[in-house]
Amino acid sequence: MIERIHLAILREVARRGSLTAAAETLFLTQSALSHAIRKLEGQLGVDVWTRDGRSLRLTQAGAYLLEMANRLLPQLEHAERLMAQYAQGQRGTLRIGMECAPCYQWLLKVVAPYLAQWPDVDVDVKQRFQFGGLQALEGWEIDLLVTPDPLHKPGLRFVPVFDYEQVLVVANDHRLAGKPWAEPCDLSDEVLITYPVDIDRLDIYNYFLLPAGCAPRQRKTIETTDILLQMVAGGRGVAALPRWLVAEYAQKLPVTPVRLGPNGIPKHIFLGIREEDAGADYLDAFVRLAAAIG
């Protein structure tokens, strides 16, 4: 009845926007593609899509099959990659997604000894998920997610591996440099530089500014840590980053950390995995090593 090629056709039509483009991607003729779907519709007794002018519109049944395709095909493709690696004598590839831009430097400290301990495992770090990796983990695009903000959902497990403090980072000659801590309204006249994520995912807003009813004069977003800290060092604004990261950059840039409030903002880095992958030796070993290095 429903075969893998049917799911692949639906996924590629949704991705490419037309039967012609989907057929080219799947190395099929357009007539063969159309015939496969008509045959499926005949077997199921329902239409998968209808034509709206030159466009295709999924029916409710087609939308359900597309959702199934997006869920199942990545798992099958992942299994095939693993089987190919096993056939070549490799254990596999550990695909790590980053949902924490400044955590990349920390991750490097874990990857180097891990590769030495597991020579038959490759590591692939996917930074494009740094601003939203939960769906990638659920969709089998990655095997492990590095995040400071876990969203506990059925089927996922998050393990805390590293504690740190979120601090305000300012230029050495900034008016707040040297203060024991900053108060929320100290930022009222400041430009706050952040990564390009929603405000409700920024700790400095959730745990510092919003509870006090304060806000910065302006917010700017920058994707890369290096440029962000260059902006801070140049007096273009302030930012909130892990204390350990600020300490590293303070050796080469004129920046300094300032505690956010008298008690600071404690945070944790978590490693997220799928429950069904728990027990995989090379995956569990990475989690244990990350916790040991801290």
General description of the model:
With 294 residues, the chain is an alpha/beta fold. It is 42% helix and 24% strand. The chain contains ten helices and twelve strands. The chain is elongated. The protein starts with a helix and ends with a helix.
- Counting DSSP E segments of at least 2 residues, the number of strands comes to 12
Our Rg estimate from Cα atoms comes to 24 Å
Largest sheet: 10 strands, mixed
N/C terminus separation: 51 Å
Provide keyphrases for this structure.
single chain, 10-stranded mixed β-sheet, two-stranded antiparallel sheet, 10 helices
Topology diagram in text:
Elements: H1 4-16, H2 19-26, H3 30-44, E1 49-52, E2 55-58, H4 60-87, E3 92-98, H5 103-117, E4 121-126, H6 134-138, E5 144-147, E6 156-171, E7 181-182, E8 191-194, H7 203-212, E9 218-221, H8 225-233, E10 238-242, H9 243-249, E11 255-260, E12 265-274, H10 281-293
Parallel strand pairs: 3-4, 3-5, 7-11, 8-9, 8-10
Antiparallel strand pairs: 1-2, 5-12, 6-10, 6-11, 6-12
Helix pairs in contact: 1-2, 1-4, 2-3, 5-10
Could you write a compact summary of the structure shown?
The protein is of the alpha/beta class. The protein is 42% helix and 24% strand. The longest helix has 28 residues, at 60-87.
